[in-house]
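Progress note, sequence design subtask.
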């Protein structure tokens, strides 16, 4: 499966400005199946999916879209089976709730001849999809680590929050650890906050009781960063200079844009990647533009200077 270069990707996305690329007038159906808004990032993803479908319905009159959200893997499997049986979808864009239970139904869609785009969480069998769209998890960890090093040139003591135990989390943490190696930054402790603000509040309370001096926190996620900040405020600690989250929650981006010293930066892992996936699928279904392969969305450092470029006031995330 060929990797889409940035040049080709730019050319493909540029084609979205017109519906004239359609090769026929036959109506085709694109199914979009994603998890429900069970947490902040997923809420943002749902927002961008809905906005993208609304916009593309106007751009491509020869396309119909069916969007479903699921609160568990079994519901998502049923949603996809209904899309095939009832709507006869020509393409499926899916962000799997979990990889294993979603692999057989998505594989069945692919074997029916429909186009398949998988987003973020891969399937347990490689090569099923025509297109894979995801964030750069090693890049997320590397950019975070490089910022910490630049912000702490003399080194210092930090605590680290991990997400849910997953391959994605391992990739992020491994890259972060490599980026701060030999920098003088000392990791006092590293615990799972499970991408959850309440869990992270509890973990940070424990860190604060154990360590009388903490210079900074890599929270690695904005939901976790909110829990961390609440614990710091409740404890009345003033030794912690800043907290670095990630994923671009609008409240955190706004604080960064206003020069908040406790939130000096953020690292993108955009829930809007679902929009990229839907748009490229529409291009693949209506034109001869080559869009199969892997599309990896880089992680960008957000600072006070560029923060408003990443601020979506209408998004729930």
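Output:
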């Amino acid at each position: 499966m060929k990797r889409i270069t940035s040049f080709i990707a730019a050319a493909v996305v540029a084609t979205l400005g017109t519906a004239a690329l359609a090769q026929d007038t036959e109506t085709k159906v694109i199914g979009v199946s994603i998890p429900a808004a069970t947490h902040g990032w997923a809420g943002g993803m749902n927002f961008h999916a809905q906005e993208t479908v609304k916009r593309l319905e106007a751009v491509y009159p020869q396309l119909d879209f069916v969007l479903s959200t699921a609160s568990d893997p079994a519901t998502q499997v049923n949603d996809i089976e209904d899309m095939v049986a009832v709507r006869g979808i020509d393409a499926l864009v899916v962000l799997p709730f979990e990889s294993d239970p979603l692999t057989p139904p998505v594989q069945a869609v692919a074997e029916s001849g429909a186009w398949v785009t998988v987003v973020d969480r891969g399937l347990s069998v490689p090569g099923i999809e025509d297109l894979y769209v995801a964030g750069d998890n090693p890049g997320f960890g590397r950019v975070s680590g490089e910022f910490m090093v630049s912000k702490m040139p003399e080194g210092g003591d930090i605590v680290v929050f991990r997400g849910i135990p997953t391959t994605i989390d391992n990739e992020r943490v491994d890259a972060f650890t490599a980026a701060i190696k030999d920098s003088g930054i000392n990791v006092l402790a590293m615990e799972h906050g499970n991408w959850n603000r309440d869990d992270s509040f509890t973990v940070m309370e424990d860190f604060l009781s154990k360590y009388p001096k903490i210079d900074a926190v890599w929270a690695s996620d904005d939901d976790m960063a909110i829990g961390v900040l609440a614990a710091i405020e409740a404890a009345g600690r003033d030794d912690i200079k800043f907290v670095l989250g990630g994923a671009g929650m609008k409240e955190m981006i706004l604080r960064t844009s206003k020069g908040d010293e406790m939130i000096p930066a953020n690292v993108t892992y955009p829930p809007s990647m679902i929009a990229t996936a839907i748009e490229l699928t529409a291009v693949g279904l209506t034109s001869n533009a080559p869009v199969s392969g892997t599309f990896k969305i880089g992680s960008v450092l957000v600072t006070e200077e560029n923060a408003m470029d990443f601020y979506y006031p209408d998004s729930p995330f």
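Confidence is low (pLDDT under 50) at residues 1-24. Work on this subtask will continue into the next period as scheduled.
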